[in-house]
Design brief:
This is ABC transporter substrate-binding protein. Keywords: Signal. It holds the Pfam family Peripla_BP_2. InterPro entries: ABC_Transporter_SBP, ABC_transptr_periplasmic_BD. By secondary structure, the chain is an alpha/beta fold. It contains 13 helices and 10 strands. Strands 5, 6, 7, 8, 9 and 10 form a 6-stranded mixed β-sheet that branches. Helix 5 runs antiparallel to helix 6 and helix 6 runs parallel beside helix 13. The protein is globular and about 60 Å long. The relative contact order is 0.11. The N terminus is likely disordered.
Length: 289
């Protein structure tokens, strides 16, 4: 009997030590989508630093930044004395990550493609790294249900849409295929007017007139940098497009929508509602799960 009690005591002490060690670990998060997922799982309590792409939730922006996600330095990351780093696949350069691993920092990288289906996988991966598998499975199922609901909505009227991520001078930078923006447009039921090109490219007046977008979707940051809606409609060639003539514009939070984190399904449903309103079609996305 005493042996069983000693054994039980040893197990409890080991568990308490494990919990105490885990609670005292210093974590750094790299990638806005991973930070959002940590927060959604209430797993952000050990965070001591972030990178520049972590802009949500707002309390995390008060944490010190170790630099830009793709251009990190080992010195900057090590300055916050991390025990663990949880990063998305874009963190780098590779040499810096290897240096961090070499000095004993635990590095976990969540590799997920820029697809809507990968959102649930990403949530489950973060849940696994943070010992929250049940919460992660529940959240992943909720997000999957919302995406399935969106996919089952009736088709929208054919609408050629231009997604502007940012602009340079008088030339807007539009999204082609093989981009997160293209995926978002397809998910909502819109036709990408610039699907013939791949990636994000600057689009001149001639291309604007030729592709004739009927609707513009633009990031809030890009629109602000451009100088607001008035500046948008004054871009060369824009006034000759159906979108420019009717001044059809929807402004979105590009990081929240295109980062494919936990907020993306709700924002896609909200975008669908905005599109329905601007096209004057019957609303169908109001009873989402």
């Amino acid at each position: 009997m005493k042996q069983h009690i000693r054994l039980l005591s040893s197990v409890l002490l080991a568990l308490l030590f494990s919990l105490e060690t885990s609670a005292s670990e210093r974590w750094v998060v790299l990638g806005g989508d991973i930070a959002e997922t940590l927060s959604a799982l209430n797993a952000d309590i050990n965070l001591v630093a972030r990178d520049d792409t972590v802009l949500y939730p707002e309390p995390l922006t008060a944490l010190p930044s170790v630099g830009y996600l793709r251009q990190l330095s080992a010195e900057s990351v090590l300055s916050v004395q991390p025990d663990r780093i949880l990063a998305n696949q874009h963190a780098g350069p590779k040499e810096v990550l290897e240096q961090l691993d070499a000095v004993g920092v635990t590095l976990d990288v969540v590799n997920a493609p820029a697809t809507l289906a990968a959102i649930a996988e990403k949530v489950r991966a973060v849940g696994g790294y943070t010992d929250r598998p049940e919460q992660a499975n529940a959240l992943a199922q909720t997000l999957t249900d919302k995406l399935e609901y969106l996919a089952d909505l009736p088709p929208l009227p054919s609408t050629r849409t231009m997604f502007i991520l940012q602009h340079s001078g008088l030339t807007p930078r539009a999204a082609g295929r093989q981009t997160a923006a293209h995926t978002a447009l397809e998910a909502v039921g819109l036709e990408n007017a610039f699907a013939a090109m791949e990636g994000y490219h600057s689009v001149g007046a001639e291309a604007l007139v030729r592709e004739a977008p009927e609707l513009i979707i633009m990031s809030a940051r890009g629109l602000e940098a451009m100088g607001g809606p008035t500046a948008l409609w004054q871009l060369p060639g824009m006034a000759l497009t159906p979108a420019g003539q009717k001044q059809r514009l929807i402004v979105i939070d590009d990081q929240a929508l295109l980062g494919f984190g936990p907020r993306a399904p709700d924002l896609l449903l909200a975008l669908r509602q905005d599109v329905e309103a601007i096209l004057n079609v019957s609303p169908t996305a109001l009873a989402a799960p």
